Amino acid sequence: MGARRIAVAPQVLEFASDDPIAARALAALYHAAPPTTAVPTLRYALRRPAPDAGRWVATCPGRPAFGPAALGDAWSFLEWRATEDLLNAPGTDAVFLHAAGAEIGGRLALIVGESGAGKSTLVAHLMLRGHCTLGDDVVRFAPASGRFSAVGRSMKLDPNSLRAMPLIASRCAAATVGTLLAAGCYYVSPAAIRRSWQAGDGRPWAVILLDAARRTGEPGLERASEGEAVVSVTQQVLGAGADGAPRQEETTVRLLEVLADVTAYRAVGSDPAAVAAALEREALR
Amino acid sequence: MTEAGVLSRPAARPDLLLRRVGSEWVLYDATRAKAHVLNLTAAVIWTYCDGTFERSAIADAIARDVPGLDLTRIRDDIDDVLRRFADEGLLR
Fold first, then answer.
1. B22 in reach of chain A (CB within 8 A)
2. In 3D, which of B17, B12, B14 has the Cα closest to residue B90?
3. Alpha carbon distance A22, B18 (integer Å)
4. Which of A112, A228, A248 to probe by mutation at the B interface, max B CB count within 10 Å?
5. Side-chain half-sphere of A145: how many Cα atoms within 13 Å?
6. Does B72 contact A at CB distance below 8 Å?
7. What's the pLDDT band for A177 if we cut at 50, 70, 90?
8. N or C: which end of chain A has fewer CB within 10 A?
9. Could you give the CA distance from residue A122 to residue A276 in angstroms, rounded to a whole number?
10. Do B21 and A262 touch (CB under 8 A)?
């Protein structure tokens, strides 16, 4: 069975399948994460009980096997488990945040918003403008050092977003995977957009709030309450207190300290390309 | 203690943490996993909530610190802020 191992510190994930389609689907999850030969700490496999079987069995750590089921369902199960397992074991010196981020002219911007608020789309537009990313949905935060770092997960982009991004859309047109879990979404590796996709570790200069209430109006950025923005960030912590990870209270206090001098903006309007341009102007100011 | 009692000499819960963020202040209540954003006025009032200052003394102190403010307005603000602190369970 062919296997691909990737490092998402502190874990080493292994994805295995002897079927080329399934292997490609699995590879799409963490395509941009660095490959490794280290011993895996989390193993996932997608296989068919028999070579000609049309149904699939998914296996993961600590859970009964899922299936036999349709490939899409089995793959979705593995994506869910590979995400949850990772978020619940961030290590002793880190937690994950449900947030996106980008590095613009050497300055990090942390992007916060509910699922579907447009974090991935904004990150994609920033990448198309030549900037690197910390990720579109999950970023790592180390309370001890106060630094944020990238997670090599693939980005989820829906066709509406892609219509305004023909370069990325052209790559998705050739993709064979991407519509299995989030209906209509493509899993786009940041490494497929930019070879050097990864933003450097650091502390954010700004927090950008994506807020459904501000979808109308002249597209761009408006200043926002720093207090409210940072409190929003503290509410995005995932996996705190799990498996020896820093506790929630400790993490919140560190976030308040580390983000004490950020500038807060709220994205306005429904044009993410214009928001990306506005953010670039602010960062390079 | 009644609200009037709590507010007469307001005392902050000692387990809360006040941190500056930008031009605002965040009061973090770890017990309830809740963070409150305070403006500068509320943050200043919070620093007087040690159980020794009466409301009028807080108003006098702020009036001394920030010349030019109307004392009646300060007292109204203090009443509003302390009521909010009490409603949120931030006072002992």
1. yes
2. B12
3. 51
4. A228
5. 14
6. no
7. very low
8. C
9. 6
10. yes
The DSSP secondary-structure symbol of A150 reads -
The model's confidence at residue A1, banded by pLDDT at 50, 70 and 90, is low
User: Cα separation of B9 and B90, whole Å?
Assistant: 14
Q: Is A271 on the interface with B (CB under 8 A)?
A: no
Handedness of CA B49, B54, B57, B62 (dihedral sign): positive
CB distance B28 to A253 below 8 Å: yes
Q: Do A227 and B30 touch (CB under 8 A)?
A: no
Residue A55 has pLDDT above 70, yes or no: yes
Residue A261 sits at the chain B interface (C-beta within 8 Å): yes
CA distances from B19 to A40, A108, A114, B22 (A): 41, 22, 25, 10
- Where does chain A hold its CATH 3.40.50.300 domain(s)? 95-284
**Which domains does chain B possess?**
3-86 (3.90.930.60)
pLDDT reported for residue A171: 74
Contacts of B37 in chain A (CB under 8 A): 225, 227-228, 231
Q: What is the pLDDT of residues A148-168, one digit of tens each?
A: 999 999 998 888 888 888 888
Specify the pTM.
0.90
d(CA A216, CA A214): 5
Q: Which fold has domain A95-284?
A: Rossmann fold (3.40.50)
